[in-house]
């Protein structure tokens, strides 16, 4: 961190009007110079989608006091790309923060998460990045119990750096009667969503579906993000974007006839 | 593989009318019983997006001789979920194949790829899966030089299995004067896209952007997918979906004051 105020780029996936991003901006203003580029509409579960078959809009908005802010018609990953290459015009942020998401992005949800795609996109661009998510899907979620943790983790990231090519996936327990117990650095639990489809009929007699489902966690490890959250700890999973199953390379070379 | 014909589920991201999926279906019909669930419109670069804030449509289509086929309004990952939980009603496919994509999904493009999100979604569900992509973005791409390779890789996957939780990312070189030299099992190259934004003005005086860019590969390793493709080999990268940067856990625990 330079002696000057760090430049912090803020994005999210719930859209620029959400309480979560407003909360995050307020915390970041205490730490650095804040620039916001966030979607103009909710982009939850957009995964690492980018906009290549359509145009992108980017408009300045006057929503946050003393903060340069833009709303973008694209995905969270688009926001990072547009911020870096257009809004910041050559300045590289010291840190990208994304969120605070209204809802969990722990375990397998990291793959579907727009919040984390913004952070991972930043990591691909070589910028330290953190995605923050609260395990409370409510639009009116209470973020009051986590502000100090968001600030502490952000300051530690600026002080110590984040390993190159890594973005942190930080999840916070929903507000409970007891205060949060602490912070644990974890691995992604090997859990998944088990979908169910709710089939309905529209007023014109055609069928349609709503995707619903429940979370299945058969991973009983003590070192997972799910375990930490269950026990009222903040979970931090360092994430990278090399999907190679390295051990499988030798296996396939040995067993397959290619 | 059972003695009965294997059940093969086919998806893609270019949409159900693309030449790539038609080519893939014809090859799979020689191997097994084929069921198709594919997007009703192009879904390129959708990453691992899923549809949770909107409804999903699923309609039977009569496009492929002797093949049960459905078009879906959702993303490639949605197609797999709807296929498994609704279309196949309890039957589990022996294999999911996705593609053949019109365009490369090698290296970092795996993150943005709808083709690979279908394959990875299947892997999450415990189903062996392969995404096939041709390094030719043309709508009228020539797939004639790769059919035998698609068939060979599919048969090897059915014979030997694919490691649990792994999906194969298979990329084919664009047709060249020389025939393809062979197949290499690789790691994902540490390359990335360097975006540029083409700013224009609409007829109403408002600005908008097209995302463009070029591919930057500073990874000079001999064992990458990019290297294989450059040298006219088919690349196979086994992919998994645990994003944890495991080595960083100890590092953060040691260096950070949490």
Please tell me about this protein's structure:
Two copies of one chain form a homodimer. Chain A is an alpha/beta fold. Chain A has one domain: Survival protein SurE-like phosphatase/nucleotidase (Stationary-phase Survival Protein Sure Homolog, Chain: A). Helices cover 26% and strands 28% of the residues of chain A. Chain A has seven helices and eleven strands. In chain A, a hairpin with a 7-residue loop joins strand 3 (58-60) and strand 4. In chain A, helix 2 runs parallel beside helix 4. Chain A is globular and about 55 Å long. Chains A and B meet through helix 2, helix 3, helix 4, helix 5 and strand 8 of A and helix 2, helix 3, helix 4, helix 5 and strand 8 of B.
At a glance:
The structure is a homodimer of 258-residue chains. Chain A has helices at 19-29, 76-87, 109-112, 114-124, 147-160, 225-230, 246-255, and strands at residues 7-11, 33-39, 58-60, 68-72, 95-102, 129-134, 167-172, 182-185, 191-201, 207-217, 233-239.
Task: Considering the chains and any ligands shown, give keywords for the structure.
homodimer, alpha/beta, two-stranded antiparallel sheet, 11 strands, 26% helix, 28% strand, globular
Strand order of the largest sheet of chain A: 3-4-2-1-5-6-7-11-8
Shape of chain A: globular
- Using the coordinates shown, work out and report the CATH topology of chain A: Stationary-phase Survival Protein Sure Homolog, Chain: A
Please identify the top-level CATH class of chain A.
Alpha Beta
Question: From N to C, what is the helix and strand string of chain A?
Answer: EHEEEHEHHEHEEEEHEH
Number of helices of chain A: 7
Give the radius of gyration of chain A. 19 Å
In the CATH hierarchy, what is the architecture of chain A at level 2?
3-Layer(aba) Sandwich
* Oligomeric category: homodimer
Let me know the number of strands of chain A.
11
Helix fraction of chain A by DSSP (H/I, runs of at least 4): 25-40%
**pLDDT averaged over residues of chain A:** 95
Percent in strands of chain A: 25-35%
Spans where pLDDT lies below 50 across 5 or more residues of chain A: none
CATH superfamily of chain A: Survival protein SurE-like phosphatase/nucleotidase
Amino- and carboxy-terminal Cα gap of chain A: 50 Å
The profile of the biggest β sheet of chain A is: 9 strands, mixed
How many domains in all of chain A? 1
């Amino acid at each position: 961190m330079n002696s000057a105020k760090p430049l912090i780029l803020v994005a999210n996936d719930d859209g620029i009007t959400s309480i979560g991003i407003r909360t995050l901006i307020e915390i970041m203003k205490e730490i650095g110079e804040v620039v916001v580029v966030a979607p103009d509409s909710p982009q939850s579960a957009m995964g690492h989608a980018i906009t290549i078959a359509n145009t992108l809009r980017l408009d300045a908005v006057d929503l946050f006091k003393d903060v340069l802010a833009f709303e973008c018609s694209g995905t969270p990953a688009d926001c990072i790309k547009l911020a870096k290459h257009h809004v910041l015009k050559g300045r590289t942020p010291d840190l990208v923060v994304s969120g605070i998401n209204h809802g969990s992005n722990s375990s397998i949800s990291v793959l579907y998460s727009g919040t984390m795609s913004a952070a991972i996109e930043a990591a691909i661009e070589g910028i330290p990045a953190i995605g923050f998510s609260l395990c409370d899907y409510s639009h009116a979620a209470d973020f009051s119990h986590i502000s100090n943790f968001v600030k502490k983790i952000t300051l530690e990231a600026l002080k110590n750096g984040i390993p190159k090519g890594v973005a942190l996936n930080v999840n916070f327990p929903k507000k409970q009667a007891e205060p949060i117990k602490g912070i644990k650095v974890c691995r992604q639990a090997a859990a998944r969503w088990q979908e169910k489809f709710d089939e309905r009929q529209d007023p014109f007699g055609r069928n349609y579906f709503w995707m619903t489902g429940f979370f299945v966690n058969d991973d009983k490890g003590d070192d997972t993000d799910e375990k930490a959250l269950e026990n009222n700890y903040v979970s931090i999973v360092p994430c990278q974007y090399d999907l190679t199953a390295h051990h499988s390379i030798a296996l396939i070379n040995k067993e397959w006839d290619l």
